[in-house]
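Dear H.,

Thanks for agreeing to be a second pair of eyes. The structure we're designing against is below in token form, covering all 73 positions.
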């Protein structure tokens, strides 16, 4: 398999994932209070949003690489 085909498939998959998930969410645990055997922790939820345009751009780039690799044959 050519490198351009592999790169095109990678871009197509990444674009589909970005369009389907809309972002990443993760949780961090912070130690708020630590007095002897008593420990209090808090959870903070963080989000990294993805713009839908980013997924569309990756999909378009993947299609363009596929077309370029087919034209070279």
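And this is the sequence the design step returned. I haven't edited it by hand at all.
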């Amino acid at each position: 398999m050519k490198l351009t085909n592999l790169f095109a498939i990678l871009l197509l998959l990444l674009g589909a994932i970005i369009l389907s998930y809309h972002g990443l969410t993760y949780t961090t645990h912070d130690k708020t209070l630590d007095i002897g055997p008593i420990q209090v922790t808090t959870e903070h939820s963080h989000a990294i949003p993805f713009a839908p345009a980013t997924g569309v751009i990756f999909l378009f780039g993947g299609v363009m690489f596929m077309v370029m690799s087919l034209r070279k044959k």
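Two observations from my side: The chain has a mean pLDDT of 87. The first strand starts at residue 23 and ends at 35.

Warmly,
E.
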